[in-house]
Amino acid sequence: MTDQPFTIDWEFAQATAARLAGPGPKVTGSQANDAVAGLRAAAEASHDPVAQTSRLHSPPGSAPVLVVDRAGWSQANIGSMRALMDPVVAKIQTSVSAKMTTPPSPGVAAFGGKVAGAEVGALLAFMAGKVLGQYDLAPEGSPRLLLVAPNIVAAEREMDVDPRDFRLWVAMHEETHRVQFTAVPWLRDHMIETTRTLAVDLAPTPQELTERLTQLATKLPQAFQSGSNGLAEIFLTDEQRARVAEITAIMSLLEGHADVVMDDVGPSVIPSVAHIRAKFTDRRAGLSQFDRLLRRMLGLEAKMRQYADGAVFVRAVTAKVGIDGFNAVWTSPETLPSAAEMADPAAWVARVHG
């Protein structure tokens, strides 16, 4: 273990996440096999409808599909998070070391690394029990589409929806993300670089951290307000919030586009799509008060808004210029919508299409 003043024990984070996430709903061996086979079939069946609906086409063999459990999802995300966070950790180490006269002992550094690892692992464990699927950009690896089998089974049981239709519906959403990032060659690198740069810039120096911690008591209630970005509201400056808003606009576009595609595929492919959407919307609205507060604090409520805001933008633009006109959004980073344009789709149409 390094004697740097700030480290994250990533192996401990992964072990913590796997231990805390739990296995998910009880299933027999046969049910587990059926779920995995059904999800693989759903992923395969989603390719053509998504391509036809979105009019985006991936190169053959791009980004494999993996059906994983909660521990598998955590492991994949540990790798991606570490690739994004290593530059942030390096910045913090440099700034903290400059303020220290004596480096910490190896024992103290190791303990600090495990504490940080436990915090990361606990956060990932919470997420591992919620996420149905994900397109993992894998900043320093190979991208892949992840479908989290126990969470999908738990959701379909809770909502009492048709398993075949629900699995295909979820696969449609994630397949749309796969198509976005594989049919648009520059998009993955753009998102990785933008996110990594922002994360490094947001990492506070010791002096900045001290200043922001003094504001904690007065600003903490903002983290629990509806519509906030969680704890980020406490630590971000106005300039940083503006930069976060711009990357949030891109994420809203991606999520909203995936939601529109998964619903527009229609009953010819997913007979109970309208019923599933209604049930899923009710499920999102039916969270417990504690769950709502926790999601709000972590900024996950803002994540839910991305689906709605992005879908409104996609439908409004498509109504004006059609699907091919909307797809001009994928031309280059300059044609992505700004935060202001997400709230004013006509402004994006006027800027891009004249």
Give a short summary of the structure.
69% of the residues lie in helices and 4% in strands.
How would you describe the overall organization of this protein?
This protein has 354 residues and is mainly α. It has two domains: 1-184, Lysin; 204-354, no CATH class. The protein is 69% helix and 4% strand. The protein is built from 16 helices and three strands. It has helices at residues 10-21, 29-54, 70-99, 106-128, 149-159, 163-183, 187-202, 206-214, 216-219, 232-235, 238-264, 273-285, 289-298, 300-326, 339-342, 345-353, and strands at 65-68, 133-136, 144-148. The chain has a three-stranded mixed β-sheet with strand order 1-3-2, sandwiched between helices. Helix 1 (10-21) runs antiparallel to helix 3 (70-99) and helix 3 crosses helix 7. It is globular.
Which structural class matches the secondary elements?
mainly alpha
| Quaternary organisation of the protein chains | single chain
The CATH fourth-level homologous superfamily of the largest domain: Zincin-like metallopeptidase, N-terminal domain
- Describe the global form: globular
The level 1 CATH classification of the largest domain is Mainly Alpha
Helix content: 55-70%
Could you give the distance between the termini? 57 Å
How many runs of DSSP E, i.e. beta strands? Answer: 3
Keywords, separated by commas or semicolons:
2 domains, mainly alpha, 354 residues, Lysin, 3 strands, 69% helix
